[in-house]
Amino acid sequence: MSITKKSCCGTREAAPQQQNDVKEFVKKRYADRVKAPGMTSCCGTASGSCDSAVALSAGYTEEQLAGVPAHAAEHSFGCGNPVALAGIRPGQTVLDIGSGAGIDVLLAARKAGPEGHVIGLDMTIEMIEAATKNAVEAGLSNVEFRLGDAEDMPVESGTVDWIISNCVINLAPDKAKVFAEAYRVLRPGGRILVSDLVTHGLPETARKSLEAWAFCVGGALEEEDYLAAIRGAGFKSIPDELARLAPSLAGKVSSIKIGAVKF
Description:
Layout: E1 4-6, E2 12-14, H1 16-35, H2 52-58, H3 62-66, H4 70-74, H5 82-85, E3 93-97, H6 103-112, E4 117-122, H7 125-138, E5 143-147, E6 160-166, H8 175-185, E7 186-199, H9 204-207, H10 210-214, E8 221-222, H11 223-232, E9 243-244, E10 253-261
Parallel strand pairs: 3-4, 3-6, 4-5, 6-7, 7-8
Antiparallel strand pairs: 1-2, 7-10, 9-10
Helix pairs in contact: 1-7, 8-11
Protein backbone atom coordinates (compact mmCIF):
# COMPACT_ATOMS: atom_id res chain seq x y z
CA MET A 1 0.00 0.00 0.00
CA SER A 2 1.38 3.42 -0.96
CA ILE A 3 2.09 5.89 1.82
CA THR A 4 1.66 8.94 -0.42
CA LYS A 5 -1.07 10.46 -2.54
CA LYS A 6 -1.44 13.58 -4.63
CA SER A 7 -3.39 16.40 -2.99
CA CYS A 8 -5.75 18.74 -4.84
CA CYS A 9 -2.98 21.31 -5.30
CA GLY A 10 -0.55 18.73 -6.65
CA THR A 11 1.65 18.23 -3.61
CA ARG A 12 2.33 14.80 -2.19
CA GLU A 13 0.90 13.97 1.21
CA ALA A 14 0.71 10.80 3.25
CA ALA A 15 -2.54 8.94 2.66
CA PRO A 16 -4.97 9.62 5.55
CA GLN A 17 -4.84 6.08 6.92
CA GLN A 18 -1.04 6.27 7.02
CA GLN A 19 -0.55 9.71 8.60
CA ASN A 20 -0.64 8.50 12.20
CA ASP A 21 1.68 5.61 11.33
CA VAL A 22 4.20 8.04 9.88
CA LYS A 23 4.04 10.37 12.88
CA GLU A 24 4.35 7.60 15.45
CA PHE A 25 7.26 5.99 13.62
CA VAL A 26 9.09 9.32 13.31
CA LYS A 27 8.45 10.21 16.97
CA LYS A 28 9.84 6.90 18.16
CA ARG A 29 12.87 7.09 15.88
CA TYR A 30 13.87 10.57 17.07
CA ALA A 31 13.14 9.74 20.71
CA ASP A 32 15.52 6.81 20.37
CA ARG A 33 18.16 9.02 18.77
CA VAL A 34 18.20 11.63 21.49
CA LYS A 35 18.10 9.04 24.30
CA ALA A 36 20.80 6.74 22.89
CA PRO A 37 23.60 8.82 21.33
CA GLY A 38 25.44 5.72 20.16
CA MET A 39 22.45 4.83 17.97
CA THR A 40 21.81 8.25 16.46
CA SER A 41 21.88 9.10 12.79
CA CYS A 42 21.35 12.43 11.11
CA CYS A 43 18.60 13.53 8.81
CA GLY A 44 19.36 12.15 5.39
CA THR A 45 22.35 10.02 6.40
CA ALA A 46 22.91 6.57 7.79
CA SER A 47 25.92 7.31 9.93
CA GLY A 48 26.28 5.71 13.31
CA SER A 49 26.69 8.95 15.21
CA CYS A 50 25.81 12.61 14.84
CA ASP A 51 28.66 14.61 16.38
CA SER A 52 29.87 18.16 15.89
CA ALA A 53 31.55 17.17 12.62
CA VAL A 54 28.10 16.57 11.14
CA ALA A 55 26.91 19.93 12.48
CA LEU A 56 29.88 21.60 10.80
CA SER A 57 29.07 19.86 7.51
CA ALA A 58 25.49 21.18 7.78
CA GLY A 59 26.80 24.75 7.82
CA TYR A 60 27.28 25.65 11.48
CA THR A 61 30.48 27.47 12.38
CA GLU A 62 33.00 26.55 15.05
CA GLU A 63 32.06 29.74 16.89
CA GLN A 64 28.36 28.85 16.89
CA LEU A 65 29.00 25.32 18.15
CA ALA A 66 31.31 26.60 20.88
CA GLY A 67 28.45 28.76 22.18
CA VAL A 68 25.94 25.95 22.72
CA PRO A 69 25.99 22.87 24.99
CA ALA A 70 27.74 19.86 23.48
CA HIS A 71 24.55 17.81 23.67
CA ALA A 72 22.72 20.31 21.45
CA ALA A 73 25.53 20.32 18.87
CA GLU A 74 25.83 16.53 18.88
CA HIS A 75 22.09 16.13 18.30
CA SER A 76 21.64 18.62 15.47
CA PHE A 77 19.64 16.49 13.04
CA GLY A 78 19.45 19.22 10.40
CA CYS A 79 20.62 19.83 6.85
CA GLY A 80 21.47 23.52 7.08
CA ASN A 81 21.92 26.55 9.33
CA PRO A 82 18.75 28.65 9.02
CA VAL A 83 19.60 31.01 11.88
CA ALA A 84 22.70 32.22 10.05
CA LEU A 85 20.56 33.15 7.05
CA ALA A 86 17.56 34.62 8.89
CA GLY A 87 17.63 38.34 9.64
CA ILE A 88 16.50 37.97 13.24
CA ARG A 89 16.72 41.26 15.14
CA PRO A 90 16.80 42.02 18.88
CA GLY A 91 13.35 41.98 20.46
CA GLN A 92 11.71 39.75 17.85
CA THR A 93 9.70 36.58 18.40
CA VAL A 94 11.00 33.48 16.64
CA LEU A 95 9.41 30.04 16.16
CA ASP A 96 11.49 26.97 15.33
CA ILE A 97 9.36 24.22 13.76
CA GLY A 98 10.80 20.89 14.84
CA SER A 99 13.31 22.26 17.34
CA GLY A 100 14.79 18.90 18.37
CA ALA A 101 17.53 19.21 21.00
CA GLY A 102 17.41 22.98 20.61
CA ILE A 103 20.52 24.09 18.71
CA ASP A 104 18.70 26.51 16.40
CA VAL A 105 16.55 27.87 19.25
CA LEU A 106 19.66 28.63 21.28
CA LEU A 107 21.38 30.34 18.35
CA ALA A 108 18.24 32.35 17.54
CA ALA A 109 17.92 33.38 21.19
CA ARG A 110 21.34 35.01 21.03
CA LYS A 111 20.23 37.08 18.04
CA ALA A 112 16.81 37.98 19.51
CA GLY A 113 18.42 39.11 22.74
CA PRO A 114 16.91 39.41 26.24
CA GLU A 115 13.91 41.38 24.94
CA GLY A 116 13.16 38.78 22.30
CA HIS A 117 11.44 35.43 22.64
CA VAL A 118 12.15 32.11 20.91
CA ILE A 119 9.72 29.18 20.84
CA GLY A 120 10.84 25.68 20.01
CA LEU A 121 8.08 23.36 18.78
CA ASP A 122 8.54 19.60 18.68
CA MET A 123 6.18 16.62 18.74
CA THR A 124 8.56 14.39 20.71
CA ILE A 125 8.57 14.76 24.50
CA GLU A 126 12.12 13.40 24.74
CA MET A 127 13.33 16.20 22.46
CA ILE A 128 11.46 18.82 24.52
CA GLU A 129 13.10 17.53 27.69
CA ALA A 130 16.58 17.48 26.13
CA ALA A 131 16.17 20.97 24.65
CA THR A 132 14.96 22.39 27.95
CA LYS A 133 18.03 21.03 29.71
CA ASN A 134 20.27 22.48 27.00
CA ALA A 135 18.66 25.91 27.36
CA VAL A 136 19.22 25.83 31.13
CA GLU A 137 22.84 24.84 30.60
CA ALA A 138 23.24 27.68 28.10
CA GLY A 139 21.85 30.15 30.65
CA LEU A 140 19.11 31.43 28.34
CA SER A 141 15.83 32.66 29.81
CA ASN A 142 14.22 34.00 26.62
CA VAL A 143 13.32 30.57 25.24
CA GLU A 144 10.55 28.04 25.76
CA PHE A 145 9.76 24.65 24.27
CA ARG A 146 6.25 23.51 23.42
CA LEU A 147 5.07 19.99 22.70
CA GLY A 148 2.91 20.00 19.61
CA ASP A 149 2.25 19.12 15.99
CA ALA A 150 3.49 21.30 13.14
CA GLU A 151 0.19 20.66 11.39
CA ASP A 152 -1.71 22.18 14.35
CA MET A 153 0.68 24.53 16.13
CA PRO A 154 -0.02 25.57 19.75
CA VAL A 155 0.88 29.18 18.89
CA GLU A 156 -1.43 32.21 18.77
CA SER A 157 -2.20 33.73 15.40
CA GLY A 158 -0.17 36.73 14.27
CA THR A 159 2.39 36.64 17.08
CA VAL A 160 5.64 35.54 15.39
CA ASP A 161 8.18 37.64 13.45
CA TRP A 162 10.38 34.82 12.14
CA ILE A 163 9.85 31.12 11.55
CA ILE A 164 12.84 28.86 11.05
CA SER A 165 12.91 25.13 10.40
CA ASN A 166 15.77 22.74 9.76
CA CYS A 167 15.11 19.53 7.83
CA VAL A 168 11.80 18.87 9.59
CA ILE A 169 8.91 19.83 7.31
CA ASN A 170 9.75 16.88 5.05
CA LEU A 171 8.80 14.63 7.98
CA ALA A 172 5.25 15.99 8.20
CA PRO A 173 2.60 13.90 6.43
CA ASP A 174 0.70 17.04 5.30
CA LYS A 175 3.08 19.83 4.28
CA ALA A 176 0.25 22.09 3.09
CA LYS A 177 -1.12 22.18 6.65
CA VAL A 178 2.33 23.02 8.04
CA PHE A 179 2.76 25.99 5.71
CA ALA A 180 -0.82 27.13 6.34
CA GLU A 181 -0.15 27.06 10.08
CA ALA A 182 3.13 28.92 9.57
CA TYR A 183 1.26 31.62 7.66
CA ARG A 184 -1.36 31.85 10.42
CA VAL A 185 1.05 32.40 13.31
CA LEU A 186 3.24 34.98 11.52
CA ARG A 187 2.55 38.68 11.87
CA PRO A 188 1.96 40.65 8.65
CA GLY A 189 5.44 41.16 7.24
CA GLY A 190 6.70 38.10 9.09
CA ARG A 191 9.16 35.80 7.37
CA ILE A 192 9.95 32.11 7.13
CA LEU A 193 13.39 30.67 6.42
CA VAL A 194 13.62 26.92 5.90
CA SER A 195 16.43 24.44 5.32
CA ASP A 196 14.98 21.19 4.03
CA LEU A 197 15.24 18.36 1.52
CA VAL A 198 13.48 18.12 -1.84
CA THR A 199 13.46 15.30 -4.35
CA HIS A 200 13.97 14.96 -8.09
CA GLY A 201 12.21 11.87 -9.38
CA LEU A 202 12.53 9.81 -6.20
CA PRO A 203 11.34 6.21 -6.77
CA GLU A 204 7.95 5.33 -5.32
CA THR A 205 9.54 2.45 -3.42
CA ALA A 206 11.36 5.00 -1.24
CA ARG A 207 8.13 6.84 -0.56
CA LYS A 208 6.49 3.65 0.71
CA SER A 209 9.17 3.10 3.38
CA LEU A 210 8.70 4.40 6.92
CA GLU A 211 12.46 4.09 7.35
CA ALA A 212 12.93 6.43 4.39
CA TRP A 213 10.46 8.89 5.96
CA ALA A 214 12.43 8.89 9.21
CA PHE A 215 15.62 9.59 7.25
CA CYS A 216 13.93 12.70 5.75
CA VAL A 217 13.78 11.20 2.26
CA GLY A 218 10.51 9.29 1.86
CA GLY A 219 8.32 12.25 2.74
CA ALA A 220 10.35 14.93 0.97
CA LEU A 221 8.46 16.73 -1.79
CA GLU A 222 9.46 17.19 -5.39
CA GLU A 223 10.86 20.70 -5.82
CA GLU A 224 7.85 22.03 -7.77
CA ASP A 225 5.47 20.58 -5.17
CA TYR A 226 7.42 22.23 -2.34
CA LEU A 227 7.09 25.62 -4.02
CA ALA A 228 3.39 24.99 -4.67
CA ALA A 229 2.77 24.19 -1.00
CA ILE A 230 4.38 27.45 0.13
CA ARG A 231 2.54 29.54 -2.45
CA GLY A 232 -0.71 27.78 -1.63
CA ALA A 233 -0.46 28.95 1.97
CA GLY A 234 -0.34 32.57 0.77
CA PHE A 235 3.37 33.35 1.05
CA LYS A 236 5.01 35.81 -1.34
CA SER A 237 8.55 36.71 -2.44
CA ILE A 238 9.31 33.06 -3.13
CA PRO A 239 12.18 32.32 -5.53
CA ASP A 240 11.29 30.55 -8.77
CA GLU A 241 13.88 27.89 -7.96
CA LEU A 242 15.25 26.64 -4.69
CA ALA A 243 18.93 27.03 -3.89
CA ARG A 244 20.24 23.48 -4.06
CA LEU A 245 23.13 22.95 -1.68
CA ALA A 246 24.05 19.27 -1.57
CA PRO A 247 22.70 16.80 -4.14
CA SER A 248 22.76 13.21 -2.90
CA LEU A 249 21.36 9.76 -3.64
CA ALA A 250 22.48 9.94 -7.28
CA GLY A 251 20.93 13.39 -7.67
CA LYS A 252 17.49 12.30 -6.44
CA VAL A 253 17.61 14.39 -3.23
CA SER A 254 18.92 17.91 -2.56
CA SER A 255 19.38 19.98 0.57
CA ILE A 256 17.84 23.39 -0.05
CA LYS A 257 17.15 26.75 1.58
CA ILE A 258 14.14 28.95 0.92
CA GLY A 259 12.67 32.12 2.36
CA ALA A 260 9.21 33.68 2.01
CA VAL A 261 7.17 36.58 3.40
CA LYS A 262 3.63 37.03 4.74
CA PHE A 263 2.17 40.27 3.37
